[in-house]
Amino acid sequence: RVLELPGGGIAPTEDPLAAAQRELLEETGYTAPKWQPLGAYTVDANRDYGRCYGYLAWHAQQSAEPDDMDLGQGRVVRLRPDDLRRRWLAGDFPVLPSTAIIGLALAHLDKRTFESS
Asked: Which CATH class is domain 16-116?
């Protein structure tokens, strides 16, 4: 079973944050009151193809059921930060954009923990 983050395309009239919020809701049924940008990255620099926008959704809560058509055969898996780190380090997220964004999110979580201690 493949683990990956919610994601998808950006509609012509959408900005990346609105698309991320929509994809999170469609694929997981979750919404979040605070979104932290993690950056915008080119997926294939050789062909200058594909952009990946990463966000950290703070205090996400389920507000609806996932869209079965969007989720496909998948299911929502909730992981605590320590379990996420363990699975990430074990290579359980084989899709490169998900792997990169998880690494950035974990770095931000580590920084926040360090600054609050």
From this structure: alpha beta
